[in-house]
Automatic annotation (TrEMBL), chain A:
Keyword Transport among UniProt keywords: yes
TM ranges: 12-35, 70-92, 104-128, 134-158, 179-203, 236-258
Highest taxon above the source species: Bacteria
This protein's name: Spermidine/putrescine transport system permease protein
Organism: Roseovarius litoreus
Automatic annotation (TrEMBL), chain B:
Protein name (database record): Spermidine/putrescine import ATP-binding protein PotA
Family statement drawn from the similarity comment of this UniProt entry: Belongs to the ABC transporter superfamily. Spermidine/putrescine importer (TC 3.A.1.11.1) family.
Superkingdom, natural source: Bacteria
Gene it is expressed from: potA
Species of provenance: Roseovarius litoreus
Domain ABC transporter stretches: 4-234
Top EC category: translocase
Xref: NCBIfam families: potA (TIGR01187)
Length: 267, 356
């Protein structure tokens, strides 16, 4: 009994390992190959080199795409977080008529497949005879990053007791001063997390971006997509590695900052 | 420091009436307790005085000034909550200093005033700690310091002791009363705990289902309850149906177990006519004894049915005729055993009468 049990566990462990390998091996391969000296973006490795990163840094198209992505991501994060915080405040702290419906509508973009959302917005703009532009691309990104911000901020706001705000007001702080002195600092970790979510999601989105971007504007993901259509260049591996660093590294950094903030306040 | 007046206040939430039309006068410097079970409207009243709720009808005056339209942050009140409500992201000193920032206090004076407040609540050395590092009792003292440092016109305490454990609660009770007397601030205290109310208040306002049942000094409310609700809520009482007879200002109740009981007029202020009435016998005034009754004490034979031992005192349920009565006695030697035949001694002047 015990032997078969331990065999069973061994199998479970092996299977788990396989699943993880299936998920992460391709990523590891991309990172590994980005340091390959060879002309071709595939095995065998012929030597270790930063050559492709250097070429990446000299590729104007890619640099432009990077700039676009970062500007787009930052703007998306700023707008989504502001709207998300305001919406959460309204939904949690005030009695808004139809708040359940509003809440569902705000969260809905997560539930709708992105392609559907993308096509819908595009058709709608067509109907209104508005041309595609960077602003509209930004608008699209705000729509589908907003739910993440709202979910995170709302959860935090619910845990901040109304008593604390009432205490601040009884001591003479106006509702606005109470918000900036008490509520906002207490929900800061969630606000940062929301902003980070919004940035990373915007930064590596491709589906919606492909539909909404005006001609001539490329983000990093659409740029990679375009480059892949010609050939698999080792530059793409290098670009992939940079993307992985940003999308994994940023949230980790954010988490560390949030943890530091919360140990300071002891919450 | 100011008086507080509630004038014909009504508070409705939708169709539910939380506070029925009531008026209340809280004199300057007094310690007034709003006492009642949960849902009786005591917290609603407090929150209306604070400005956290708007009364549906009526007006609220603080220091003679109508404050219905004054928002909470301009009312100059000290508010202490059951769950302390300290700002977790600020140190103790920053918490206490918070209210001073919104008053015209020179910034050079702030540290001194914070320290004075911390001294007053006997926690002089915790200024640089965060609230999370303090115990519940300490946090509540800081909350009190934060509320009184701004020299409020009125101090509002919303069940401030309920989250503390029993021993600490009694210490804090004494402490709170000491501080209140020292600074002399008008204080409105909300609690459901009758012993807190009796121990601390100058006046108790007993509330039930949104109505004021009785207003009076602790002794008055305890000894001469104005209604059956008050008699039951403050301590344990036996309330017995009786008939009342008046003769030249003297009130006499006829009750089937205790017979004829002459009630002092002071203990029957609400009796205005003869007829059905209620005899109120406090459980601790009903004494079990095996010896004969002294002069002027009613004695009735009874049998002990249940003994609820509580250490220094004991609660008996006894059967006298076909009436079951409750008695709480100090233990002198051993408590009586179940089944013991005893005499119930009752001094008529310890009873009170209510209209039937």
């Amino acid at each position: 009994m015990r032997e078969s049990g331990s065999l069973g566990w061994a199998l479970v462990r092996a299977w788990t390992l396989l699943v993880y390998m299936f998920m992460f091996l391709p990523v590891a391969v991309v990172v590994l190959l980005s340091f390959n000296a060879s002309q071709f973006g595939s095995f065998p490795m012929t030597g270790f080199s930063f050559r492709w990163f250097v070429e990446l840094a000299q590729n104007d198209a890619i640099l432009r795409a990077f700039r676009t992505s970062i500007v787009l991501g930052l703007l998306t994060a700023a707008i989504s977080t502001t709207l998300g915080v305001l919406a959460s405040l309204a939904l949690v702290r005030y009695r808004v008529p139809g708040s359940n419906l509003i809440s569902t509508l705000l969260i809905a973009p997560i539930l709708v497949p992105e392609v559907v959302l993308a096509v819908a917005l595009l058709l709608f703009l067509n109907f209104l005879q508005i041309n595609k532009s960077f602003t509209l691309l930004l608008l699209g990104h705000v729509i589908f990053t907003l739910p993440f911000v709202i979910l995170v901020v709302q959860a935090r706001l619910v845990s901040i007791k109304r008593d604390v705000e009432e205490a601040a007001m009884s001591l003479g702080a106006s509702p606005r001063q109470t918000f900036f002195q008490i509520t906002l600092p207490l929900m800061m970790p969630a606000v940062l997390a929301g902003a980070l979510f919004a940035f990373t999601i915007s930064f590596d989105d491709i589906t919606g971006t492909l539909f909404w971007k005006p001609g001539g504007v490329e983000t990093v993901p659409t740029q990679i997509f375009a480059m892949l259509r010609n050939s698999i260049s080792p530059e793409i591996n290098a670009l992939g590695t940079v993307m992985i660093l940003m999308t994994v590294g940023l949230p980790l950094l954010g988490l560390a900052i949030a943890r530091k903030l919360s140990t300071k306040s002891g919450t | 420091m100011s008086s507080v007046t509630l004038n014909n206040i009504v508070k409705r939430f939708g169709t539910f009436t939380a506070v029925h039309r009531s008026s209340l006068e809280i004199p300057e410097g007094a310690f007034v307790t709003l006492l009642g079970p949960s849902g009786c409207g005591k917290t609603t009243n407090l929150r209306m005085i604070a400005g956290l709720l708007d009364p549906t009808e009526g007006e609220i005056l603080i220091g003679g000034r109508r404050v219905n339209d004054v928002p909470i942050h301009k009312r100059n009140l000290g508010l202490v909550f059951q769950n302390y409500a300290l700002f977790p992201h600020k140190t103790v000193a920053e918490n206490v200093a918070f209210g001073l920032k919104y008053r015209n206090v020179p910034s050079s004076d702030i540290p001194r005033r914070v320290q004075e407040a911390l001294d007053l609540v006997q926690l002089p050395n915790v200024g640089d700690r965060y609230p999370k590092a303090l115990s519940g009792g300490q946090q509540q003292r800081i909350a009190l310091a934060r509320a009184i440092v701004i020299e409020p016109d009125v101090l509002l305490l919303d069940e401030p002791l309920s989250a503390l454990d029993a021993n600490l609660r009694e210490d804090m009770r004494v402490e709170l009363k000491r501080i209140q007397e020292r600074i002399g601030v008008t204080t409105v205290f909300v609690t459901h705990d009758q012993s807190e109310a009796l121990a601390m208040s100058d006046q108790i306002v007993v509330m039930s289902e949104g109505r004021v049942e009785q207003v009076g000094a602790p002794e008055e409310v305890y000894n001469t309850p104005a209604s059956e609700f008050v008699a039951h809520f403050l301590g344990a009482s036996n309330i017995l149906a009786a008939r009342c007879a008046l003769s030249g200002g003297a009130v006499t109740l006829h009750e089937k177990t205790f017979g004829t009981v002459p009630i002092p007029a002071a203990k029957a202020p609400r009796i205005t006519s003869e007829g059905p009435a209620k005899l109120v016998v406090r459980a601790e005034k009903l004494v079990l004894s095996t010896s004969p009754a002294p002069e002027g004490v009613i004695s009735v034979p009874a049998t002990v049915q249940t003994v609820d031992y509580q250490g220094q005192s004991v609660r008996y349920f006894v059967q006298a005729g076909d009436t079951q009565l409750q008695a709480i006695n100090m233990i002198d030697g051993h408590p009586f055993a179940v089944g013991t035949k005893v005499n119930l001694h009752l001094r008529p002047q310890d009873c009170a009468a209510l209209p039937g």
